[in-house]
Amino acid sequence: MLRSLILAMPYLFALGAFSQSVTPVVISGCGGGSVVPGVGSVQFTVGEPAITSATNGTNMLTQGFHQGAFVRVRLNIKAFLQGPWTVSTPPMTDGLRTGGWIPAAEPYTALGYPAVAGAGGETVAPAVLAVTGANAIVDWVYLQLRDKNTNTLVVASCRALIQRDGDIVATDGVSPVTFYRPSDNYFLSVQHRNHLSILTLNSIALTNTPVSVNLTNGTVATYGTNAQRISGAARMLWAGDVTDNEVIKYAGSANDRDPILTLIGGSVPTATTTGYHPQDVTLDGTVKYAGSNNDRDVILQNIGGSVPTATRNAQMP
């Protein structure tokens, strides 16, 4: 083979086979990204292997030609829960925290709340639960982003922490809440395991730069009629949805009052039980059916206080 090539070289040179110049060309990859409902975002490249981006919540590191942009939006959310509400400052109590009842792992996955574009299973460190004062943790909350064109379509969810002053923060106790969605307009829903859910009336423009959404003072309208309980200038989520079915009910089948009596024993209405229970409407760590600051009265008051068969429904589409 080598001998044949050597013999042929003069002929090849005569034809000019080696007389053409070659210009160096860099062939780089190209790619893009797409949001997958219920999963998150997918990035891809053409021309080299797919690349995974890593983020520590502030910075992003990628490798190769495709440098992915941030696919997330962040919010500074403020809301109040009626259960631990007080007219003092800060406006909510933290009895669950001081009693050591707040679980280290978020409770919503076990309760059947869907994880959309977020895996769930968030945890909180003991140091975060040791914080006192206005930034002390009251409880876990569940948040949703919904499609700007269809307010029933959930496109992302996360589980976060609510503080005594109403600030809703990430599990580190200080950072804004993050959803892994691209910048766009979204409806926002705030939910709690024994309060009625609320949803913003209008979609909100969200970006990677934290956007403030205050649901405590009426500056952000909510969907429906009387979606929030009003106390003076403050607005809060209605308490008493012990059965977590988006209806507060005092009497009749599947009401929210009977589970309280059942949990404390069913026969002695003055008995109490401590712990992290949905029957603890006031979120103080103690379930009470009778006496001061009991959990039953809140349910009766929130359906109107005079007609025990009345109900109050969450204002959700």
Fold blueprint:
Blueprint: H1 2-15, E1 30-36, E2 40-46, E3 54-55, E4 60-61, E5 73-78, H2 95-98, H3 126-129, E6 137-147, E7 154-163, E8 167-169, E9 177-179, E10 184-192, E11 195-199, E12 204-206, E13 211-214, E14 229-231, E15 234-236, E16 247-249, H4 258-263, E17 272-274, E18 286-288, H5 296-302, E19 311-313
Parallel strand pairs: 5-13
Antiparallel strand pairs: 1-2, 3-4, 5-8, 5-9, 6-7, 6-10, 7-8, 10-11, 10-12, 14-15, 16-19, 17-18
3D structure, described in words:
Mean pLDDT is 86; it is low at 1-28 and 55-60. It is globular and about 55 Å long. It is mainly β and 317 residues long. A hairpin with a 3-residue loop joins strand 7 (154-163) and strand 8. The termini are far apart. The chain has 2 domains: 73-236, no CATH class; 247-313. It has helices at residues 2-15, 95-98, 126-129, 258-263, 296-302; strands at 30-36, 40-46, 54-55, 60-61, 73-78, 137-147, 154-163, 167-169, 177-179, 184-192, 195-199, 204-206, 211-214, 229-231, 234-236, 247-249, 272-274, 286-288, 311-313.
